[in-house]
């Protein structure tokens, strides 16, 4: 990467400041990112390739079309990563960036190889960093090179929790505990769930708003939160495996093996169990919140719990995430980070922010 930068030192300043980007994933987040490219904030970025799981576009005229996302949904060249990388290589930009806005574990597994080749990687994809420990170690080794890894969008939709945690860890401040609401979709659901509407109706609304994963079981199973907790824990110095995290699955057994369409058609099976838990919590003067926790010994849990009306999580609104960090230097009173933690626009903004930070 250094040789590449040195070789382009004689280019005009405007070209040297450009970011050539390939966007992988044109769903809700990817679509929001494409819209950001049409704003002044995206002016420094040159889109040289875009792809979904089946189609791609590398032609400049096609990439400039405002309905690019919709056209890729129905047509385009067959997906070919080699052609996408060739488009990056052919561009004269100083910074060559692969943006992974997908949820594909297959794509996430390629992040270390892309970094090793000198491409910067900016991602909202949690599958590698929040997956098995071997993948995490491969990613850390690849990050030791000159290419940079932007992952602010993987946890908290861009809230400054990962950067804060890493800065504290680098300064020798040890994490004693972390507790919080790590899922914007589950935050929205349980902030709104008061027994007046069936949970299934709220879930359908959250899906329509783009708050949940395409298959909401990724949220309800606790696995999405578990990945985020693993990323946080590992960033704080805990070599935590997925097996070490106790996760409560809110999806009834009968719905777990259904295909996505069948699951969506049977959401009412969620209603009775959650209504019973809500009633029990209300009788005790408590509310239901989906929390993730880890202590200084690496004991980690994810699941639905009753919290008192005085608990900070009881007062969240919308898609708010909450991260309460206790460390050796923030022991008496936790360091709290709170704000919206779901939505295509703020997640896309986190991706853009990581790209712009490469200057």
Summed over residues and divided by their number, the pLDDT gives a mean of 93
Helix and strand pattern: HHEHEEHHEHEHHEHEHEHHHHEHHEEEEH
Q: How would you classify the helix and strand content by structural class? A: alpha/beta
Largest sheet: spatial strand order = 4-3-2-1-5-6-7
The coarse overall form would be: globular
Instruction: Provide the low-confidence segments as ranges.
Output: 1-16
Radius of gyration: 21 Å
How many angstroms does the end-to-end distance come to?
Answer: 14 Å
Number of E-state strands: 13
Helix content percent band: 25-40%
Number of helices: 17
Outline the fold blueprint:
Blueprint: H1 2-7, H2 13-16, E1 19-24, H3 28-37, E2 45-51, E3 55-57, H4 60-63, H5 68-74, E4 77-78, H6 81-90, E5 95-100, H7 105-108, H8 111-116, E6 120-123, H9 133-143, E7 149-150, H10 161-170, E8 175-181, H11 184-192, H12 199-208, H13 217-220, H14 223-235, E9 245-247, H15 260-265, H16 271-283, E10 286-295, E11 300-308, E12 320-327, E13 335-340, H17 344-356
Parallel strand pairs: 1-2, 1-5, 5-6, 6-7, 9-11
Antiparallel strand pairs: 2-3, 3-4, 8-10, 8-12, 10-11, 12-13
Helix pairs in contact: 3-17, 11-12
Can you tell me about this structure?
With about 350 residues, the protein is an alpha/beta fold. About 40% of the residues lie in helices and about 20% in strands. It has 17 helices and 13 strands. It has a 7-stranded mixed sheet with strand order 4-3-2-1-5-6-7, with helices on both faces. It has a 6-stranded mixed sheet with strand order 9-11-10-8-12-13. Strand 2 (about 45-50) and strand 3 form a beta hairpin. The longest helix has 13 residues, at about 225-235. The chain is globular and about 65 Å long. It starts with a helix and ends with a helix.
